[in-house]
Design brief:
Chain lengths: 250, 224
């Protein structure tokens, strides 16, 4: 039997009169990589924040490993620690070095000893190839390096799933690759991942399933080969045509 | 040698005693005010409606009324209404601390808001609880950001201590007044007092600059 890690059932998120997410049902199994694509403003980020327990849905249920998060009296911060989250902006703690950014959760949430936290943090930094930069402050790192530290901060906690919210969207083209490579490594190691991205190469290579969202709804779900060759819906076709407009030879 | 300022040496103990009171009151008030300012800023940013109303009433009262009036309220009005006697130094410390806290709340709240929301969300995402987010992420950055604003606060508090003479505290201005009256040399005495205030405040600001350089973190100062 496949193990469901995270599941959203009929998730709605409404801000005032704006409906950001309109009844999305989605599930991620252990070891899977699912990629959400869709135009800006299609509700991807909001959906991911709801699934990451960073925002409470207006309606609908979030299940983490089978438990209804908001129906139970579970400690939300404990659950959040098991769901890694990588943001569009690296969002590093600016007063802490790369190493201390990764260590903070290990020390204060998982309660590891100083030595153990340091060892694990360095290991995570090594995985994202940022070990040499451990003693640098965020402002001394490039956007791509900061984002890799952000990924290290998430993986160091040994989460059951990592959610990526367009991690390369705010990076220059040449910096995107270093982040994408790290994500590709993670996917190949069998990390359970839910990724919102515009990087179609990456999506095609690592995704088990592509989820196309528009106007707060899931419009199409398909395996990557099928989705990229023959999108079923007109909206997905148009979105891809626009996205690929400037890209040749992929 | 007999110069126009020689009499100061004869009264040095009066000046020194007054000066020590001024310095002590300043440092204690700014320190307690920092604690109050942090609490008030947290209350205003994270508290419920009632908390925010209380915080803002406190801040507006102390920022919106003259310090001397506040001293009268806490030294004369409240004790006589409630029928107790308060030590003037205690009353002075209470008023200056509350006063400083009201101003520092403004600086600290601004600095806490400068610790971007995205960092708070990132802190949530690794499982930190609200009080841990404040303690490990928001406050360490806010305090560094707020140091330049403290220059104002320290200088203004040091000068405010002069108002304490209205409730009979023997601080530095009050000591100078005594010397001026006894020596009949008000011009020399107050000139000397002004010079001491200037040196004192200038020194504190220089020390604060050094502290700022010491705790500065690359990139964090740009937030201001």
């Amino acid at each position: 039997m496949v193990a469901r890690v995270l599941e959203g059932l009929d998730v709605w998120k409404v801000y005032g009169k704006t409906v950001a997410v309109a009844g999305v049902t989605i599930g991620i199994n252990k070891g899977e990589t699912k990629v959400i694509i869709g135009p800006s403003g299609s509700g991807k980020s909001t959906l991911l924040r709801c699934l990451g327990l960073l925002e409470r849905p207006t309606k609908g249920r979030i299940l983490f490993e089978g438990t209804d998060v908001y129906a139970s009296k579970l400690d939300l911060s404990k659950l959040r620690a098991k769901i890694g989250f990588v943001f569009q902006d690296p969002s590093l703690f600016r007063h802490l070095t790369a190493l201390d950014n990764v260590k903070l959760g290990l020390r204060r949430v998982l309660g590891l000893s100083e030595d153990e936290a340091r060892r694990k943090a360095l290991e995570a930094l090594r995985l994202v190839r940022m070990e040499e930069w451990a003693d640098h402050y965020p402002a001394q790192l490039s956007g791509g390096q900061q984002q890799r530290v952000g990924i290290a901060r998430a993986i160091a906690m040994d989460p059951d799933i990592i959610i990526f919210d367009e991690p390369t969207a705010s990076l220059d083209i040449e910096l995107k690759w270093e982040v994408i490579e790290v994500m590709r490594d993670l996917a190949k190691r069998g990390t359970t991942m839910l990724v919102a991205t515009h990087e179609l190469h990456f999506a095609r290579e690592v995704a088990d399933e592509i989820i196309f969202m528009d106007h707060g709804k899931i419009v199409e779900v398909a395996p990557p080969e099928e989705f990229f060759k023959r999108p079923k819906t007109e909206r997905a076709r148009r979105f891809m045509a626009r996205l690929l407009g400037g890209v040749t030879g992929w | 040698m007999v110069g126009p300022f020689d009499f100061i040496l004869n009264y040095s103990h009066v000046f020194i005693e007054g000066f020590i009171v001024s310095v002590e009151v300043t440092l204690v008030s700014v320190f307690i005010g920092l604690g109050l300012g942090i609490l008030a800023a947290i209350g205003d940013l994270y508290g419920g409606r009632i908390t925010r109303i209380i915080v803002n009433a406190y801040v507006e009262f102390f920022r919106g009324s003259p310090l001397i009036a506040q001293l009268f309220v806490f030294y004369f009005a409240i004790p006589s209404l409630l029928n107790f006697i308060i030590d003037p130094v205690l009353a002075g410390l209470i008023v200056l601390s509350l006063n400083s806290g009201a101003y520092q709340k403004g600086y600290i709240k601004g600095a806490m808001e400068a610790v971007f929301k995205d960092q708070v969300m990132a802190a949530m995402s690794i499982g930190l609880k609200t009080h841990q987010i404040l303690l490990y992420v928001v406050i360490p950055q806010a305090l560094r950001i707020v140091i330049p604003a403290w220059s104002n606060e320290l200088a203004s508090m040091a000068k405010s201590t002069a108002a304490l003479l209205v409730i009979g505290i023997r601080e530095f201005t009050s000591a100078s007044k005594t010397v001026a009256a006894q020596t009949f040399k008000p011009l020399e005495t107050y000139a000397f007092a002004a010079l001491i205030y200037f040196i004192w405040i200038y020194t504190m600001l220089k020390i604060l600059d050094i502290v700022y350089e010491r705790v500065k973190i690359p990139g964090l100062e740009a937030v201001i």
